[in-house]
Amino acid sequence: MAKSQSFDVTTGVDFAEVQNAVNQALKEITQRYDFKGLKVSIDIDEDEKKLVLAAPDEFKLTAVWDVLQSKLIRRGQAAKNFTAEEAKPAGGNTARQEILIQQGLSSELAREVVKHLKDAKMKKVQSAIQGDTVRISGPSRDDLQEAIALLKQHDFGVELKFENFRSQ
Fold first, then answer.
1. How far apart are alpha carbons 103 and 107 in whole angstroms?
2. Which of 21, 85, 128, 139 measures 20 to 30 Å from 79, CA to CA?
3. Concatenated DSSP letters for 99-162?
4. pTM for the predicted model, two decimal places
5. Cα separation, 129 vs 155, whole angstroms
6. For the chain, which domains are there?
7. Please, what's the b/e burial string for 51-71 (b: 16 or more CB within 10 A of its CB; e: otherwise)?
8. Across the strands, what pairs with 63?
9. Is the pLDDT score of 107 beyond 90?
10. For the chain, what is the mean pLDDT?
């Protein structure tokens, strides 16, 4: 029986690194002169996969998001996996903004990955959606590397990760 190779395509962030980036951003913000004495917060909700930023006004909120983005990128978290919602006024003359975190492929995105591979007419490579990942399998590693190169060339709006390389 011929050996089969496979790997999984997924996306996401490392919440430990996100927590470290938030801590670094808060430390920098509290030391900046333009934020002295202001109430600024960044909260992480891992269950709902979002960050909640709060600041006195939208201008300060934008500055907080810029600082946080730089810390996230420095810690190796792809900016594409964070989607900023529109800033909304909150109680007590403050503004709030939610940042959604892409963790795992959505069903639409998984279908787009599979469709992209099928449109490329890679006959030896099969793909299957498995929850929030796409399993790609083929007879040789060369075919799988070709599939990875093809997926890296296309912009899906998130950073794709290629994991769980297996030989069966």
1. 12
2. 128
3. EEE--S--HHHHHHHHHHHHHTT-TT-EEEEETTEEEEEESSHHHHHHHHHHHHHS--SS--EE
4. 0.81
5. 19
6. 5-12+105-167 (3.30.70.860), 15-101 (3.30.70.990)
7. bbbbbeeeebbbbbbebbbeb
8. none
9. no
10. 87
